[in-house]
Here is the input.
Amino acid sequence: MWEIFAYQNADSLFGIFNAAAAIHASSDYAAAIAAVAFCGFVAALLAYAFAPDKLQGWKWLATVLLVFSVLIVPRVTVGIVDKTGGSAVKVVANVPFGVAMLGSITSTIGHTLTGLFETAFQVIPAPNAQLPG
Here is the structure.
């Protein structure tokens, strides 16, 4: 489970991740992605027909398929941890991997830096004093 740390906005984040999971599970979203992929394939085919030596269209198509299959297709579970309210962890299932990974990494960095600053500035030392280890 990927953890998202929240400060005062756990309910909002729960709604956002729930909405992202619902959108990506929708058949309308799948149909839109299929239409875009088809149009991209036709564009790649036309680009290859007019300039077969460059092969730019195939590179684009391979990149789209790779990114989509790595970041959007896999589904993971996200746990939203409220650091100020003390409420239970809110769990959202079926969140796309790319969304969960980016959210977890950025919120973990922010949470770590927040803890570091809270520890360092609990007591501001006198001049020429050293911070505790």
Notes: Strands lie at 2-6, 75-82, 90-96. The two ends are 32 Å apart (CA to CA).
